[in-house]
Amino acid sequence: MPADAVGIARIWQEGWADAHLGHVADALVVARTPASFAERAHELLADTLVAVRGDVVAGFVTIDGDQVDQLYPDRAARGVGIGAALLTAAEQVVITGGHRHAWLAVATGNARARRFYERQGWIDDGPFMHQAPVPGGAVAVDCHRFLSPQR
After folding, report:
1. Hey, what long-range contacts does 32-40 have (CB within 8 A, 24 or more apart)?
2. For the whole prediction, is pTM greater than 0.85?
């Protein structure tokens, strides 16, 4: 829903900073402006699942083919199961879309996220260099590829 984009952008910007500052190149930090999150939130609405508490966006996940691309619960909603519920829902979308596994990228330095995915049964498939999109190209980010469990 277009009205959700404002909440998604806010949650994304806050969560991205928590997860990535100190773990990615300065060029990527510079590119991730408030306007960039707002623009991307609108662009990805068709591929986004949203968790709502009351009438407020409490988290979201985006899906790109077989990739769980972005997963962020609101700071105030962390630790209450919203991230796990969104991850499960996204995995289901990927599997019902005909893919054997879902996958996602986690910045190598983001130990909190890596522990979260491991607790959800996702498997660390090893390091790879993710190309994070920025205007005019991409910035390389040292990541780990996680695969959804066989269900």
Report:
1. 34/9, 36/135, 37/9, 37/10, 37/12, 37/13, 38/5, 38/6, 38/9, 40/9, 40/12
2. yes
